[in-house]
Amino acid sequence: MAREERRLHVDGLDHAILPDPPLVTPAPAADGAHRRLSPGQAVALSTIALGLVVALTAAPGQALDVLRWTGLTLFALLATLRLAAACTPRRLVVAPPLPDHALPAYTVLAPLYKEASVAAELVTNLERLDYPRDRLQVLIVLEADDAETIAAFHALPLPAFVQVLVAPPGGPKTKPRACNHALERARGELLVIYDAEDAPDPGQLREAAARFAAAPTALACLQAPLRIEIPAISGLLPRQFQQEYAAHFEVLLPALARWRLAFPLGGTSNHFKTAPLRAVGGWDAFNVTEDADVGFRLAAAGYTLDVIDRPTLETAPTTWKAWRPQRARWIKGHLATLLVHLRGPAARRPRVAMALFLTLFLSLVSTHLHAPIFAGAVLMILLDLAPDGHAALDGPGLVLFGYAWMGSAIAAAVGRRRAGGRARALDLLGLPLIWLLQGWAGCHALWQFVRRPHHWDKTPHAPRAGRRLA
Fold first, then answer.
1. SS3 442
2. Is 51 exposed, middle or buried (0-12, 13-18, 19+ CB in 10 A)?
3. Which of 186, 282, 314, 331 is the residue whose CA sits 20 to 30 A from 470?
4. Would you state the pLDDT for residue 171?
5. What is the mean pLDDT of the chain?
6. Could you tell me what percent of the chain has a pLDDT over 70?
7. 423, 243 in Cβ contact below 8 A?
8. Does residue 336 contact residue 31 with C-beta atoms inside 8 Å?
9. In which element (H, E) is residue 15 found?
10. Closest listed residue to residue 271, CA positions, set 221, 318, 227
11. 311: cis peptide before it, omega within 30°?
């Protein structure tokens, strides 16, 4: 029997709301980012903070030396990870393509908020997807208070396979909450998320479907590489963003997948089997990096992750004003994800725990310790404040710093080559500047983690104009 359509009236406009299909609604996770710290974590962090204060009061020189060397060592360990990943050949997996009649139903989720300016461009990009239209469901998910974007989509001649959902009012107002609303209505055996600014390779869905069909049943998610387009005339920030994405998606994630380790998913172009995604409860609506969280929850439940080759093109922030809130949100979300999984089943699975250490823990420590270390060293050198007989950054410290830069620079250069471009010497030399700015964003992230843990800093997007990959 046909199901009746419901409608939502928002700001003078009627919006079709698809009726709930006969599916099992995902059960919310027993623990998640709605709880910042468990009692045990609160005690442990308080003990560490108290011990640090006592050490700095009793022997400040020695305590600072320990902090400095701890930070430098962990930074070098992170560089070793990147260097090892750069030296790991990318695994070539060719799955036989599926004929149209064998392709599974596919759902595309595109959660948007205040994105009226890119609505038409997104629909054009989604129309380019090479997938049978009778097996493709695209759900554009909007917020009830976003009248401008709702009106923009109502003004577009949408294809029949594209449907607009309006998430009901409520909190938290986050991307994962909107995704969970759409997940209840997803009809596809497979599901992918795209962001407002995404331009996915037209063959990406077919590649993912073929890989899932040929892989063991434990494979639950495939991450497509994200490649950054930058303006024809660009400054330091977009180029740094581009080489950072190249190192992460073209080098680190393929290596982790080859080593059979879990990894934090990117915020877009995650291709899921819908059933395992529902089995782990969908996304954590309170986590502002729900992508990283759900990858580790899948791994903790015994599923595996892998990567595919066909990319998604994205745009980068072009101003520091846009970059800092986005980076702070990532850092805040990664901190919440790490704390959640350290007290959950992921910590009891050795390979998943190792992946948490290599990715989230090392990255967070690098952000919060090394920027102050290097900023302090530079200030001491410039102002000649180093105590007599103590260099601001001595020989071994300079060696570790040089090694850290080398590992990161090699990963960036390899990633840029794999993405079809080449690294620029000035961009590689600019890495330490980004490390310092990461610390600036990290301070903002810590403040928000305490005061506004579930606040979503919105990254503005604009239509493409004269962008390139080189």
1. helix
2. exposed
3. 331
4. 82
5. 87
6. 87
7. yes
8. no
9. strand 13-17
10. 221
11. no
Q: Which two tokens stand for residue 203?
A: 């063959």
Whether 102 contacts 132, CB under 8 Å: no
* Residue position matching structure tokens 């995902």: 26
DSSP for 452-466, written as a single string:
-TT--PPPP-----S
Cα 253 to Cα 19, 212, 242, 276: the distances in Å are 38, 18, 16, 21
Which residues 6+ apart lie within 8 Å of 230 measured at CB?
A: 238, 239, 241, 242, 315, 316, 467, 468, 469
- The token duo for 334 is 């990664």
Q: How far apart are CA 266 and CA 103, in angstroms?
A: 25
Look up residue 46 and give its DSSP letter: H
* 0.85 exceeded by pTM: yes
For the chain, how big is the Rg over CA atoms in Å? 23
Length in residues, the chain: 470
**Contact in structure between 337 and 34 (CB atoms under 8 Å):** no
Q: What is the pLDDT of residue 463?
A: 76
Q: Token match 């919105």: residue? A: 458
pLDDT at 260 over 60: yes
Distance, in Å, from the CA atom of 290 to the CA atom of 170, rounded to the nearest integer, reads: 18
For residue 429 the two structure tokens come to 């030399």
Bridge partners for 6 per DSSP = 17
Q: How far apart are CA 127 and CA 149, in angstroms?
A: 19
Pairing of strands 270-273, 467-468: unpaired
Single-letter residue type at 200: P
User: 300 in helix, strand or coil?
Assistant: helix
Q: Which residue has the tokens 């607009």?
A: 164
